[in-house]
Every structure is written in C-alpha cells, then in structure tokens.
Amino acid sequence: MAANILLVEDEPAIQELVAVNLVRAGHQVLRAGDAETALRLVREALPDLVLVDWMLPGMNGVELARRLRADERTRSVPIIMLTARGEEQDKITGLETGADDYVTKPFSPRELVARIKAVLRRQRPQATDDIVEIGGLQLDPSTHRVTAGELPINLGPTEFRLLHFLMTHPERVHSRAQLLDQVWGDHVFVEERTVDVHIRRLRGALEATQHDRLVQTVRGSGYRLSADLGVAPALGVE
Ligand code: CA
C-alpha cells in the first residue's frame, strides 16, 4: 500500500520519527511544519491522507481540519489528528472538526501505521493493495496486473492508476478536474484534455475483451465506470 501522506507536525524530532516510519511502511510523505504550509501543499496536490498535529504554531490542527472539511475539493481527504491531549472532551472536539481518527502521543509507530491503513481502506481504496473486480475485469495493485478473465491486459502506469481509481469508485461520475486531483494528484498544471487522452488509451487497451464499454462518458460531466452496460448507449459511450 503506497499512499501520499501529508504530515503536518512542527516538532522536528517527531516529524522525523513519523516520516521515517511512514516511508518504511511504503508511503510517500510530504512534510509541513505549520498549517499554512500544509494548505499551500494541498492546493498544489491532493494527498491521500493528512496526518496533523493538534498543537501547531499559528493556525492549529483543529482549524486546519475545519478548513479542509469546508472546501469542496478537500472535503473527502481523510484526516488523522495527532495530539498529546488525552482527555475525552478533546477527543470529541477533534472528531467533531472532521478528523477521521485520533492518535494520542506517545504512540507506537506500528499503531499509527495500522490506523492509517484502516482509514485508507475505508476512505481511499485506491491507495490500498486490495484486489478489485468489476464486470469480469480484475485489478491487482500489489502485482500491478490487470486481467479480463484469463487474458492479461497491458496498461501504462497512468492508465493503471486511472482504472484503479475508477474501479474503486464505480457508478459515480467523476469530472476531469476530480480525476486530475485523484489520479494525477495535480489539478493545476495538468490540462483537463490530458484526462481524455488517457481515457482513450485505457479504452483502447480494454477493447479486445470489450471491457472498454465499462468506461463511460457522461456528457458535460465527466467519466464513470459502470458494470451496468444497459444504460451505456444513452450516455454516449464513444
Ligand atoms: Ca506540535
């Protein structure tokens, strides 16, 4: 499981300890020493999870969590709060601001990694190694293999990530901007047309087994992956 984790912690020793353990667990870590830096990094690329210390200089972790929850674009990014506080009321406040979980210092790195894994599995299935299967199409993130029945399907790395995201979020329509955020991690510098190019390549790779029909264009909105082919023609599958 490799997720992009934004770590917001002002104490260098703790930041280092946590980062080392996350990298060891296979994650990519982006670090910020304060909430303002964290917000700037989030504007550039959407992380899979934000790990934020409650006590930060300037804007605190609770306020940062509140801001991430208030913004449409960052609303669904999982947040785990790190804190020295152990009191029940603080825990409730932390969860009320929108944190998905809460880890009290001192914590064991192993516990933290396990909690991150649990939150990702619940909310960021595209960042886990769980095998997904839809409409006879199977994708295995750990071996990077896609198969249709017994037939292997060769995909480039971007098409693989795109298919993984679509398969872990089926039946929902994703705009090009959302796909750029979720698959490319960048909605600022990559053009929306890029999405169309990779959707076309993905469909091309899936054509031989007719699984290209799973990838549907929803006119004026974006793309969706659906095993329900009955409604596809009306949606304008290209
Ligand atoms: Ca702190």
From TrEMBL:
Domain Response regulatory: 4-120
Major localization class: cytoplasm
Segments of the chain annotated as binding DNA: 129-227
MF annotations from Gene Ontology: phosphorelay response regulator activity; transcription cis-regulatory region binding
Subcellular location(s) of the protein: Cytoplasm
Stretches of the chain forming a coiled coil according to its record: none
Residues annotated as domain OmpR/PhoB-type: 129-227
InterPro entries, alphabetized: CheY-like_superfamily, OmpR/PhoB-type_DNA-bd, Sig_transdc_resp-reg_C-effctor, Sig_transdc_resp-reg_PhoB, Sig_transdc_resp-reg_receiver, WalR-like, WH-like_DNA-bd_sf
Keywords for this protein: Activator, Cytoplasm, DNA-binding, Phosphate transport, Phosphoprotein, Transcription, Transcription regulation, Transport, Two-component regulatory system
Record carries keyword Transcription: yes
Gene Ontology terms: biological process: phosphate ion transport; regulation of DNA-templated transcription
Cross-referenced Pfam families: Response_reg, Trans_reg_C
GO terms for cellular component: cytosol; protein-DNA complex
Chain positions found as 4-aspartylphosphate: 53
PROSITE patterns, A to Z: OMPR_PHOB (PS51755), RESPONSE_REGULATORY (PS50110)
Function recorded in the entry: This protein is a positive regulator for the phosphate regulon. Transcription of this operon is positively regulated by PhoB and PhoR when phosphate is limited.
Annotated PANTHER family: PHOSPHATE REGULON TRANSCRIPTIONAL REGULATORY PROTEIN PHOB, REGULATOR OF RPOS
Protein name (record): Phosphate regulon transcriptional regulatory protein PhoB
Species whose genome carries this gene: Candidatus Methylophosphatis roskildensis
Lineage, broadest ranks: Bacteria, Pseudomonadati, Pseudomonadota, Betaproteobacteria, Nitrosomonadales
